[in-house]
Each structure stands twice: as C-alpha cells, then as structure tokens.
Design brief:
The protein is an alpha+beta fold and 338 residues long. The chain is built from 8 helices and 11 strands. It has a 5-stranded mixed beta sheet. Strands 1-2 form a two-stranded antiparallel ribbon. Strands 3-5 form a two-stranded antiparallel ribbon. α8 links the parallel β10 and β11. α1 packs across α8.
C-alpha cells in the first residue's frame, strides 16, 4: 500500500511518500473469510442433515417394522432390504455432514495415537495397494490425546485414500507422528492454531499435488476433483469437522506436481491412555417399565412408538425366566407414553 501527501517546507513544496507491506494482513484476512465461509456452510449442513436424518429415521423404522412381519414373500423382503440399504447409505452421508458441522456425538477417551496407528497399519497397506510404498515413523513416548477412537480411524483412512488416489501410477506414502510446540507466530499464520503442545499427525504423498485454487476449496462439502461416481466430496470436509471438534486444526502443504502433506494437530494430554472398553451387551427382557418418548417431529415420534410397541409385543411372547440386571436398555415395557 502506497500513500502520498504534498506540503510546503519553508519556501519549497515537498512530497511525503509512505509504503506499507500489507501482504501478511491480506493473507490473514483471506484465511479469516475462508474460515467464516466454512462456518456458515457448516451451520447450513447441520440443519439439512438434521432434517434429512429425521426422514431417514422414519423410512428405516417402517422398513424394520415391515421386515419383522410374518408371511412376506421373497420379492417383498428383497425390495424392503434394498430400501433399507439405500437409507443406510444416505444416513452415512448425513453422519459425514454432521461431522463437518461439528454436531455429531463423539465418545472421547484418553488414547495413545501410536497404538491406534499400529493397529491400522496392516489394513492401510491393503488399502493403498502394492504399487505404493508405505513408510511409517512414529515418535517414541508420544503423549496421550483426548479423542474419539473411531473418528481418528476415519481421519487416517480418508487421508490415506485421498493420497492413494493422488498416486495412480505409484509412489510413496508417509505417515508420521511427532510432538510439536506451537507458538504465537505459528498462530498468526494459521487462524485456527493456538499455542501449546500438540501431536502432529502427518500424511504425505508424492502424488499430483494441488493448485492454489483447488487448495482454497478442498474442505468445502461436496467439492471434489475426482470423476463422477468416484467420490462424494465429503471426505476432507468430514476430517475438517472432526479435527475442529477435537480442539485441533489441519494444515496442508502442497505444490502442483510435487505431492501433498496433510498435517493434523491434536492437543496433548497428561493422563495415561484408558483401556479399551469394547464388548457386547446381551438382549434384555423388560416388562415392568414405562417408556416416555419425547420427540417434536410427529412422524419420528410415531415410528419410535410403533417400534417399541412391536418389540414389547414380541418380548411378551418369549418364555419366562430369570431376567438379567438392568443396564439402561430394555426390549419391552409395561406402557409406552408419548
């Protein structure tokens, strides 16, 4: 930016010319506008996903009720199963939209990222294929993170699949974990960043890279450079939402023709990792409970009520026997209120 001013100095007219480099300011303003645009798109996506999810709940609920009906011929069963599969695929898209908008329900625990990465390593090798070399570098004694394990796996899988697609003729895929200290200067360059200790998960490929124009749109929902039918354009948008929901951010280093590096920053935790709590819960029998169904959408409330009544009817026909101790879930109830 250049400004000039003329004034008299004694008996002479002089000009004062000042120049200020505002390149960094312009870059920050551009990044801020981009973040605000993604935030607005996220709010819109959350609203759409919520309404769409209600419709899918009604579809899935009534399909389940019909499939539980006796004396259906094979044609009707096959047709209902196809409807159920289509609804499930649509529900998967709504989950991705909710992840992008940071509205999905997460179950965070204290986790060891290296342990998760090692458990995924064999599967990742199969996903990328034999034409791509996988190189992993996991920092020893990595601090814990507070995160949802399934969400972390989704982040890694989406990044790896994108890297694979960027290397159709082969190449090298690198996955690295490390501890980094983020200072104020780093935060000035990246609006989402904030100072502190973070674990950085980097997924780097030697693929086609991206232009500046493509880079400016990659986290927008439904934006994709892949052929029609090869992608939904929700993969990176989902990652963006998940990382933000975990109080982190993602940075991208790329150059057209020279590959890309996606760097995910997640806050460090001082606590030790929690043991896995995976397990199954057996079917429970009820009979003396009252279930109150609260839902503002009439169609959703109705299908939930019908499903519960159907389950209660079927459960009442089961042979009696000792009941397991309650654990917050029951298949039958004495009454169901709306």
């Amino acid at each position: 930016m250049i400004s000039a001013d003329a004034f008299s100095l004694g008996s002479e007219m002089v000009a004062l010319v000042a120049t200020v480099d505002i390149t960094e300011q312009r870059d920050l303003e551009k990044q801020l506008r981009h973040s605000q645009k993604l935030e607005a798109v996220g709010q819109f996506a959350a609203g759409v996903a919520h309404d769409f999810n209600n419709m899918l709940t009604v579809i899935q609920g009534h399909v389940s009720l019909q499939l539980a009906t006796k004396n259906l011929n094979e044609g009707m069963i096959s047709s209902l199963e196809q409807v159920s599969l289509a609804a499930e695929r649509a529900a998967s898209l709504t989950r991705q939209l909710l992840a992008f908008s940071r509205k999905q329900v997460v179950q965070p625990r204290i986790l060891d990222l290296n342990e998760i990465m090692r458990s995924l390593q064999e599967m990742l090798s199969r996903v990328i294929g034999e034409h791509i070399d996988l190189a992993c570098d996991f920092a020893p004694n990595l601090p814990s993170i507070h995160a949802d394990e399934s969400n972390l796996a989704q982040i890694v899988m989406n990044l790896v699949v994108n890297a694979r697609d960027a290397m159709p003729h082969g190449g090298c895929l690198g996955i690295r974990t490390e501890v980094v200290e983020v200072d104020l200067a780093h935060g000035l360059r990246h609006p989402q960043a904030h100072p502190g200790s973070f674990i950085r998960l980097s997924v780097t490929d030697t693929g086609t890279g991206m232009s500046a124009e493509t880079l400016s749109h990659i986290f927008e929902p439904f934006f994709t450079t892949k052929e029609v039918g090869k992608g939904t354009g929700l993969g990176l948008a989902t990652i963006y939402g998940i990382v933000a929901q975990h109080d982190g951010w993602i940075e991208v280093l790329t150059e057209l023709g020279h590959g890309s590096s996606f760097q995910v920053y997640l806050p460090c935790q001082d606590s030790a990792p929690e043991p896995s709590t995976s397990g199954t819960v057996g079917d429970l029998r009820g009979g003396d409970e009252t279930i109150l169904v609260v839902e503002d959408e009439f169609a959703v409330r109705q299908v939930i009520t019908d499903v519960l009544k159907n389950a209660a009817t079927r459960s009442s026909k089961l042979p009696t026997g000792p009941r397991p101790s309650p654990s917050g879930r029951c298949a039958a109830a004495k009454s169901i209120s709306c």
